[in-house]
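Review this fold:
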Amino acid sequence: MTILLIGPRLTPSKQPGGIVVSFELLVNKLREFGYDVNVIDNAPESGVKKMLFPFRFVFELLFKLKSCSHVSFHGTARQFVFLSPLVVFFSKLFNKTVSLRKFAGSFDAYYFRSNWLCRTLIRYSLTNANANFFQTLYLVKFFKRFNKNTFWLPTSRQRYLGAKRCFAFKKRFIYIGHVARMKGILELVEVMKRLPEDYNLDVYGPLVEKDILQFLETSRIMYRGVLRPELVTAKLCEYDVLVLPTKWKTEGYPGVIIESFSVGLPVIATNLRGISEIVEHASNGFLTPIGDVDKLTECFLSFNEDNYRDFSIRAHDSFEVYDIDTTTKFFISKVV
């Protein structure tokens, strides 16, 4: 069976984000399971290539449709308006089954904010697809009204097979993500001013807002640069707790939380709709209100030598449903 996957590819010219990593993992895992996979990159580049992207996309879609049995589109909110209707229309025209997968969260809010035409295009795609997949449970519940074959396909990561982590709590905290105000970096600066000097926090990720570096340099936070995706999990093993105080309300299931669970790292994260589905407060981590420095500081101080082992074990147990082997087998069961 040949599956045509349409999604964002990992290329040397792009900074890989969570959705790119998720898509590449699925591509590789399907091939590992013995499926013939063709791929179309639906992430346009800049300049002239971006202007020509719609024409290239349609041409490549029509060319590759002939040899596939199933078409699977993986996209963002805007792509569900402008690209998924084309994918569904041509797949049906060529008598191919088709599935759609929406990355990230808050697609229900995007749907409500959209004009009549955009909502119509989204409904057309979802209604006529053979299966739809959403990253969060609340989106599955909302969009099931358009198609009963609507399923949960969470962010997935590869199980880590490296050295086993120890359960000693050494007050080593880590942040991995875009270094920007909307990710809660300045709140972390304030927290570190309040914590005892034996608490350590290292920050990894691209400097989206360069001026933030001056705030980090005047605090006890160490900025460590950008990590390549394949090095993230091993790096997490060097720390005790992941911190992700994001203010970005469109967050779905951040991949770095799943990676943390894979090595038994509990998490401190913002109490957003998507994150609260995977981080259970006072079980595999702690949830904190957006921008609340007092509560965030409290979360840091909630871990100690006596309770850390239990938190770590529960975090590791949480990973099972996000294992790429598990999610890929579920995906296959719904599209093959």
User: Anything to note?
Assistant: Residues 266 and 285 are 5 Å apart (CA to CA). The mean pLDDT is 94. The two ends are 8 Å apart (CA to CA).
